[in-house]
Write a structure and sequence with these properties.
It is a single chain. With 199 residues, the protein is mainly α. The protein has one domain (2-198). Helix content is 75%, strand content 0%. The chain has seven helices and no strands. Helix 1 packs antiparallel against helix 2 (37-58) and helix 3 runs antiparallel to helix 7 (151-198). The longest helix has 48 residues, at 151-198. Belongs to the AIG1 family. It comes from Mytilus coruscus (Sea mussel). Pfam families: Far-17a_AIG1 (PF04750).
Length: 199
């Protein structure tokens, strides 16, 4: 896994550093580049792939067929982070290919949907409060469409975007099941056979 994770991590470190040091657009106004979800996403992706490199060195990569092995805390955090933020937030930019390759080569244990969605919606709420604060405090609408919408239209627009986030989470879950479902079902059928033999 390191052969994939390390180059992607280096690419993200370079991209984030280049963006901060060399691209002046976006730093103007209250909140700087942190106004934009795209910049938050770049930070999230960089952090995630840094965690994957660290996990490759000192964590675990337990697959469904290796159920008896101990899963490290780092792997649990990596999987939770990917499921709840990295994949859903990352789906709106060009990093989708990296995430699809990641989902294909590395098994990720998804948390119960309730907890995954609570984390994702908590992040969305945090970002929403942030952009509304910027609009209130500095009279800057990060996304110009929000400036022209009436308050009730803004509410509908935001609710639609929250449902988009939810559907991206469920899409990530489905992709995970698509790539790893067969291996998981083989393991589950072995468990059932073993439990029947014991009886």
């Amino acid at each position: 896994m390191l052969i994939y994770h390390l180059p992607v991590y280096v690419l993200y470190i370079f991209s984030l550093t280049y963006d901060i040091v060399n691209i002046e657009v976006g730093w103007q106004g209250y909140g700087g580049k942190l106004k934009f979800l795209t910049f938050w996403n770049l930070c999230i992706q960089t952090l995630y792939f840094g965690i994957t490199v660290l996990n490759d060195f000192c964590g675990s990569n337990v697959r469904p067929s290796e159920k008896g092995q101990k899963i490290s805390s780092l792997q649990k955090f990596r999987d939770y982070f990917l499921a709840t933020l990295v994949f859903p937030v990352g789906m709106h930019t060009t990093i989708v290919p990296f995430l699809l390759v990641e989902k294909y080569i590395v098994y990720h244990q998804y948390p119960p949907r309730k907890y995954g969605l609570m984390t994702l919606l908590g992040f969305a709420l945090l970002y929403l409060v942030w952009i509304l604060w910027i609009a209130y405090y500095a009279n800057i609408w990060v996304y110009p469409i929000l400036k022209v919408l009436q308050p009730h239209q803004r509410a509908v627009f935001i609710i639609v975007l929250l449902f988009l986030f939810i559907s991206l989470y469920i899409l990530g879950e489905s992709i995970n099941k698509f790539f790893w479902g067969k291996e998981r079902s083989v393991v589950q059928s072995r468990k059932m056979k073993n439990s029947q033999k014991v009886k």
